[in-house]
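queue> pop job 88
queue> type: inverse folding (structure -> sequence)
queue> payload:
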């Protein structure tokens, strides 16, 4: 009888407690698992929330940068407008009025034909200076007013030079200035084509204005490492050379000078801006009184 009760006693005293402990352990582990799942879900929610906050911060930072950029562009536009009005009102308006008054006097007075022709010839350089000033003012104001930044592409330099010389061949012929070019075969520059076209035209136009009659302007360009080295070689008499060099060294437009000086100053401002925006350099090298090189470097 005792033997029959042994299995029951074993079950009651040993197995049953183990079963109870197992059940309790399962309940605990199940509860713990639910708590872990809840914690993981909470952590996942926090991670997602953090990502949302970071995205919002990034968007806010981009908006702030965009706002600052627009603010700088507005400041630049305002500065350009103020300077433009200053040039137009004083540096352009005053000489035009004086020129008009002079012409009115010539037309109203009864003077001999020879004297009239002599007076008109004296007005010719004034008109030339004014013409160059207006052209440089137009190029500079158009460039400063634009919002878009350079769009660099690979361009055949010879084609850009050819376009510049063709556009000014009549102005050169009028002063009997010979234009030429020697460009390394296949030489390309990595820059904004429209900006470089305007740059080469401005450099050439100011060079023609600087030179006396029976002179030459030649474009010579070769590749040096990662740069295209462009020399604009001016050969001939240059009565305003020192003024030309002085205005190149100016860091900003200088209105306290002659009409020719104002023209050169605006021209250099435009050229320096274009070259800098296309990651290049520009300089002037006076070799002799009748020998000057304008040196331009642009990426290839």
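queue> result:
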């Amino acid at each position: 009888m005792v033997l029959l009760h042994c299995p029951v006693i074993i079950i009651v005293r040993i197995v049953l407690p183990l079963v109870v402990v197992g059940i309790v352990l399962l309940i605990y582990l199940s509860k713990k698992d639910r708590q872990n799942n809840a914690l993981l879900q909470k952590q996942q929610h926090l991670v997602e929330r953090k990502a949302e906050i970071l995205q919002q911060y990034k968007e806010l930072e981009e908006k702030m940068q965009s706002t600052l950029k627009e603010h700088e562009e507005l400041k630049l536009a305002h500065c350009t407008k103020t300077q433009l009005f200053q040039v137009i009102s004083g540096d352009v308006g005053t000489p035009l009025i004086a020129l008009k008054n002079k012409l009115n006097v010539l037309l109203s007075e009864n003077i001999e034909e020879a004297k009239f022709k002599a007076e008109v010839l004296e007005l010719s350089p004034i008109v030339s200076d004014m013409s160059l000033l207006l052209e440089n003012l137009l190029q500079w104001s158009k460039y400063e007013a634009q919002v878009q930044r350079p769009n660099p592409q690979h361009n055949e330099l010879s084609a850009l030079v050819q376009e510049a010389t063709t556009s000014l061949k009549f102005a050169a012929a009028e002063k009997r200035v010979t234009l030429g070019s020697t460009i390394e075969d296949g030489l390309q520059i990595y820059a904004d084509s429209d900006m470089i076209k305007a740059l080469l035209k401005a450099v050439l136009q100011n060079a023609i204005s600087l030179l006396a009659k029976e002179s030459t302007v030649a474009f010579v360009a070769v590749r040096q490492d990662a740069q295209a080295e462009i020399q604009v070689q001016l050969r001939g008499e240059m009565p305003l050379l020192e003024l030309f060099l002085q205005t190149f060294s100016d860091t900003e437009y200088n209105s306290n000078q002659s009409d020719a000086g104002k023209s050169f100053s605006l021209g250099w401002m435009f050229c320096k801006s274009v070259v800098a925006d296309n990651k290049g350099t520009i300089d002037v090298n006076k070799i002799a009184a009748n020998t000057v090189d304008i040196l331009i470097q642009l990426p290839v």
